[in-house]
Amino acid sequence: MTTEEITHAEDTFLIPTYRKLPIALVRGEGAYVWDAEGRQYLDFYGGHCVTLLGHCPPRVVQALHRQSSSLLFFSNVVYSEVRARAAALLAQAAPDGLGNTFFCNSGTEAVETALKIARKATERRGIIAMQGDFHGRTLGSLAVTWNSAYRAPYQSVLPDTHFVPFGDLAEARQALVTTDDIAAIVLEPIQSIAGMVQAPPAYYRELRSMCTDTGTLLIFDEIQTGVGRTGTFSVAEQYDIVPDLVTLAKSLGSGIPVGATLVHDDLLPSIEYGDQGSTFGGGMIAMAAVEATLQTIIDDGLMSRAPEVFHSIQVITGAHVRAVRGRGCLIGLDFGRPCAGVLSALRDNGVLAGGSGDPNVMRLMPPLITTEKELSCFADAFEESVTQHH
Predict the structure, then answer these.
(1) Rounded CA gap, 295 and 22, in Å?
(2) What pLDDT does 154 receive?
(3) CA 263 to CA 267: how far, in whole Å?
(4) What is the model's pLDDT at position 328?
(5) Which of 136, 180, 184, 216 could be joined to 211 by an S-S link, Cβ 3.0–4.6 Å?
(6) Spatial separation of the C-alpha atoms in residues 283 and 289, rounded to whole Å
């Protein structure tokens, strides 16, 4: 099918919920993708921050082939060798105390699970969330997502959330002390969609301390920062803290849908049979992808590559932007002016990148396997694109 034929078919038969780029991709390998007409793009967008190992990473593809040839699926009513191996590897990679996993199918499900666990464990209902955060579109996750455009149609059925400014300790403390019903504080440690916004390390440490003092649980939504994208498996490690709950998705399965909620040892006594459930969560295909993804990251020492890529992007773009935000392979370029033109020009010059809720900020989510060759390719395209829209 041509791009025109693919576009027509999707526009005819799919509900129009997404604004799409005018390209139809048919193949991917490493840091590159190709469209229906064979044009190559350097992918520094990663399908919404998903392809941490690039496209079709060989060990993941091989693992999927092996698993699909033996057992596609059986539910959690039975034990599974591949699930056991994936869970053990995830516990090995996770921060100390967070080696207990609930597998689901997506990031929003992982957040829902964390909120449910927090409310039951604390016997409280209230949640503090951050202005600017995005946590998902199912009702529980939507309730703690800041953008009112997402929440407005469903406001009548959403539980109340106390939203406070991200990075403002005084406001968070005030919200905690004015009610004794706060079960958890939930936040994206780096607000990706909001424009790659982060706070000083002391902020996260003080939040941890405040939660400990008040018996409130701290939930880190690491659906974008996790699995080594920022240089450590959990970005919390860079702040020298351990959250009570961590949510993962996106990079965890190299493109196979999977989510996970990591639960601290201290919360296990509050969890009982039947509290959580998912027919497809922990399915064999997803577990094969998780195991191969984690094994590749660990064996190849790829997490150490993340800060190197960040530094290279800083050098390449620094003269043209007001600031380079984020950590590792989760990068925001603040142009100090609307960047839509540069973003479009980059695509015309063969590089895929992303916008954000801040019209001045372009997002880059390159894979950990990014080499000097890809960085050079990006540098040339970026220079050309900025020159066109100076």
Answers:
(1) 35
(2) 83
(3) 7
(4) 98
(5) 216
(6) 10
